[in-house]
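BUG-507 | component: ligand-complex export | severity: low

The export step for adenosine-5'-diphosphate jobs runs without errors, but we want the raw record kept on the ticket for reference. Input record follows.
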Amino acid sequence: MAPIYDNDVLTGYVKIARDMTQQKQAEEALAISEERNRVALQSANMGAWDWNIVDDVVQWNDQHFQLVGLSPGNQSLDSAFFAKFVHPEDMEMVMGELAKAVVGGLFQMDAFRIVQADATIRWMSGYGRVVESVDGVAKRMVGVMYDITDRIAAEKGLRDKQIQLEISQRAARVGVWGFDLVNMKGIATPELLELTGYLDPGDEWRLDIFLEMVHADDRQYVHRAVRKAAADHSGIELEFRMEHPEKGIQWMLMRGQFIPPYDTVNASLMGSLIDITDRRIFEEQKDAFIGIASHELRTPITSIKAYAEILEEMFAEAGDLNSSGLMHKLDGQVDRLTELIHALLDTTSIVNGKMKLFPTKFDVNQLIYEVADSMSAASSHQFEIQVSDEAFVFADRARIRQVLTNLIGNAVKYSPKSDKVIIDAVTKDNQVIVCVKDFGIGIDEEIQSMIFDRFYRSSDAQASTFSGLGLGLFISSSIVLNHEGTMSVTSVKGEGSTFCFTLPQLT
Ligand code: ADP
């Protein structure tokens, strides 16, 4: 309030009133905003700096002191003090960026090293901007600095792993591929391009170009497997031939897995490819050898059998029953040898896809009785047969007899401590299902899928006195498969096994 005089006479008062509410509110808002910033910086463990460029005075918050390994303080510092903590190798870069920022207004350094007070080296990221300038000359700059050591370590770990993976893929000569199931395009490693001779890598690897390089006879098969894995969300494992532009036909083993979509990424298939040409050549040579050797053995063995039969008869006629008995045993062993040779010959024709079938119409139930009858004479086991109606099929009777003989033979062989084998047959959904159940040694779950492989014998079978070549189930399952049927096993170790196969029913 101020008095007003007119010629020294007080004529009135002027009252000036200022409303302080707004200013107060603004101050409070500023305080709140500063507090908020402080909390944010603290919780993110961010160092904040404020650099008065004109006077070269620097202020740090508590976290900034901690980031360089000092206890928090509130003294004023200068830029040289900060420089003391910058790693010598990064000094030029950091100072250069700061000098540029003074002119350009923005400081940004993704990664540089700080040597803390106790000589520990930590990685930092820094960001700052000019907040005050006069006539284009920067006066003040503020910014933040934060520790990224853990992120750098993780990235380095990831990079190291990536390098190790690439080295091991190269050493093992494994190509890796992957493609998106919407666009049928994706990635391939250099090893894969080299293995296949894929010439136009560009940026992407395309399924259609890859399929073009697959041998014409195998292309359908590979394409079908890919489509099936995509549709069933399953895996792939297949061997096929590829036409390498320089090396010619190469055998490949391809393995892959369906990867479900995630975020914005489409579903894909991803996997590996290895060259198995040497293994295939070796296998072909081995099969050829087995084929020739077993074929050559057949003639002398047929002669031995004929001589044994003649001698058995001659001894019997001469009344030398002892010798004729021995000859009978010899004949039996020759039969066993013939069976083994036939098994070997069978495998070569299966592998070459040359198994010939001579199908006729017959009742599986009747065949079961027949086989069980012929085997029961030489076996101490009881065969319990459970069949109901007739079960007609159109199949190669001799081959199905071979399957039954193998399954019942195994059931007896692998259940030395029990005396019962159950054979049953049912018809369901136009299929005849035949099962042979024993109460013997059983099969470990992990190896149940392998016992149908050629030459596979479990360590139990190898270690003990069970004889065999590991061919029976391979041949039997191939026979069933060739009849559009399936073969499976369920087994509990120590309790017994049940082998089942199906054949299309003739209705
Ligand atoms: P082999 O009997 O000549 O070894 P197979 O192909 O008939 O060959 O059988 C492969 C393997 O499967 C056998 O070595 C054995 O380990 C296992 N196996 C087959 N049948 C049975 C069974 N009924 N019980 C237990 N193990 C079996």
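Assignee comment: Attached the raw record above. Residues 406, 410-411, 414, 438, 440-443, 451, 456-458, 460-461, 468-474, 497 surround adenosine-5'-diphosphate (CB under 6 Å).
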